[in-house]
Amino acid sequence: MARKVLLNNVEHKALRVITTRSAALGDDVMSAIVVPAEFRSVQACYPIVFQKQADTGQFLPLALFGFEARENLFLTESGWDANYIPLSIERLPFLIGGQRATQQVAPPQLVVHIDLDSPRISWTEGEPVFLEYGGTTEYLNRASALLHSLHAGLEATPAFVDALLGLDLLESFVIDIDLKDGSRNRLAGFYTVHEERLRALDGTAIVSLYARGFLEPLYMVLASTVHFRDLIDRRNRRL
Amino acid sequence: MSSQVKRVVIVGGGSAGWLTAGVIAADHRSPQAPGLEVTLVESPGVSPIGVGEGTWPSMRDTLRRIGVSETDFIRECDAAFKQGSKFVGWSRGEAEHYYHPFSLPQGYTEANLVTSWLQRHASTPYAELVSSQPQLCERGRAPKQVTTPEYAAVANYAYHLDAGKFGQFLQRHCTARLGVRHVVDHVARIEAADNGDIAALLTAAQGRIEGDLFIDCTGFASLLLGQHYGVPLHSVQPLLFNDSALAVQVPYAAADAPIASHTIATARQAGWIWDIGLQTRRGVGHVYSSAHMSDAEAESVLRNYVAEGAAAKDVASLAPRKLSFRPGYRQTLWQRNCVAVGLAAGFVEPLEASALALVEFSAAMISDQLPATRASMDIVAARFNDAFRYRWERAVEFLKLHYLLSARTDSPYWREHRTSASVPPRLAELVALWRQQPPSRYDFFRIEEIFPSASYHYVLYGMGFRPEAAAFPERPDNAALAERFFGEAAALATSMLAGLPANRALLNHLQSYRLQRI
Questions:
Q1: What is the mean pLDDT of residues B309-317?
Q2: Which of A179, B28, B135, B380 has the fewest C-beta atoms under 10 angstroms from its C-beta?
């Protein structure tokens, strides 16, 4: 079980984080949640799809790294073979926690927590989190910035998804993947943007999407689908 | 005279009236082309009867057709999922039970399941061998997951609902979204045209309301078809004795008490007790024959039942609502330019929850076959009458089957239910035939049968009916095939039990999250 605790420079003064990428460090994931603000970077590397969360039934966008559970086709002997890693992966083992001030009226402060059970935690190797006298390292400053971007992105995602659903712009899809060994695999349970309906939107709807900043991420999703070819190639190369 | 049918006037604002209005308006009106004018007139202060808190899976199609969101419907109508019925005490009057689930037997159309069941699995109840659904019900599971789209099912399902809230919910949708005109006024008089049609309704405050087609949804009053046209009620009381009901609302013992995802129908000495789970309460009622039991006795039977599963203070404070009805239906449902839907057309006891289903069938056929002109209306009317006489007859026979097959001897009520005078001849003939062959599509050959032959399987074999020895011969390859389907049903049960949430858990979830439309 994850042990998530508030990060502090007393208990965790000497703590270090291993930043290399490998299955042993938990990078053997098939997908990761992405947020619209990073779609431009994500679409340069991975297909962006939507999936219903098992606990809420609500849609969230994901970057796909593989075709089955624990398959990350970007993971190689020498690390993660892509020039962008989504925020929700990059920020690990840190996470954001809400800490209420003593007065209940104040909004919760966003504070950095750390998962002490993460295989990335070390006391001997990796990036230091705190400086010798308790100050924060550049590494932690960057992780904290990632966390805040991710948090803001997750807060903004439901409005984006609702806008797509309101315009009937999501559709489910399946991809049959024929591999060079003759096997056929089916990827199902994901949703993507319905291109014809997007093209058929009237001016008012388009302007509204544009004004809310949703148009660009929408087209980023469309652009990202070219990477399915890349995923299949990566899978074939492993056969 | 071949005037166009442009104005549909529905009289009565219960669930029958609003469902019919919704289906017709959704099919024949749009903001771009208003098309038909649909008006619903209802008297102020008439409270709906509120029968029919159980539905069939067809309700999912009907609600989708009307264009409502399933999440909204569930939230606003106190609705809960229903996966079928559990019959307790019907064959011997003990605690024995069987299920009539909504899912067809696995492989129903592809193999002779009955023979394989009898030859190799006779100790397993039929429904539990051929369907995964009884297990889902026994374990209190919902028929779908939080990720299942609206109206889609993992296991086939319908709803339990609060009929009063349902009427109001449909009213809001019909008036706000479908352009149905809502007139709240007393109908003082019905104005006849020279040809015998209904020309208009004269209302107390808002004058004449003209129409081309009038739909009578006025409940037992049957204001247009029964009173104005004098079409008599064809009584089925000689076949189905129940004519009274006492209904109560029972709170759950605890806020997190399980919600049954099936109707529980428990046989009693002179009738039976329905028990349906809504989100916030149970609806429980005793339906009985007044010729066989006094109201006071019936009330004590009901209280005893409720006392088994509720706190004593809740039982003491119950105030049962009495409902009397003449079981029967009108053999002419569509007369001239007037058609009756719902209780105005007929009502037999709530067993198998056919009341709202018949409303849906009626609304769908009226809307699908809506005559464009008065001249074609008589053709449609004749077909409608034929279709619904057939459906009422089949419904009566199917309900009768539940009593006919009983082995109970503990009261005159049960014994009289098996006298030949109380059994429709067609049913007697079918039961004789079913001793040598299972119910099939040859017995129920219409496209839209009200109860499919599979329902007869569940009831027959659930009630303990067995064919004559050596009946139902098997094809040589049948055994392997049937075994495969039994295996599939068992595997489905395992995977569904692993993946489906508790019925209450899903209903609670829907208070915070919406199901997706896709």
A1: 77
A2: A179
Interface of A with B (CB under 8 A): 52-59, 165, 170-172, 191
The residue from B82, B86, B144, B400 that is catalytic is: B82
SS3 content of chain B, % helix, strand, coil (to 5): 40, 20, 40
pLDDT in tens, A6-22: 998 888 988 999 999 99
Q: How much is the pTM?
A: 0.91
Distance CA A62, CA B377 (A): 56
**For B135-187, what is each residue's pLDDT tens digit?**
999 999 999 999 999 999 999 999 999 999 999 999 999 999 999 999 999 99
Residue from B147, B148, B154 whose CB has the most chain A CBs within 10 Å, to mutate? B147
Q: Does the active-site annotation cover B82?
A: yes
Asked if B178 contacts B66 with a C-beta cutoff of 8 angstroms, the reply is yes
- Could you give the CA distance from residue B120 to residue A156 in angstroms, rounded to a whole number? 59
Helix axes B374-404, B425-433, angle to 10 degrees: 60
CB pair distance less than 8 Å for A57 and B145: yes
Q: 132-191 in B: which are within 8 Å (CB) of A?
A: 145-148
Interface test with B, best of A50, A56, A164, A172 (most B CBs within 10 A): A56
Residue A75's contacts (CB-CB under 8 Å, 6 or more residues apart) are A21, A22, A23, A27, A28, A65, A81
CB atoms A55 and B146 under 8 Å: yes
Q: Please measure the distance between the N-terminal and C-terminal CA atoms of chain A and give it in whole angstroms.
A: 34
Nearest to A171 among B146, B514, B518 (CB): B518
Taking each helix axis from N to C terminus, what angle separates B374-404 and B354-368, rounded to the nearest 10 degrees?
160
Residue type at position A171: E
Q: Are A61 and A47 in contact (CB under 8 A)?
A: no
CA pseudo-torsion sign B275, B389, B164, B79: positive
Which residues in chain B have their CB less than 8 angstroms from residue A52's CB? 146-147, 516
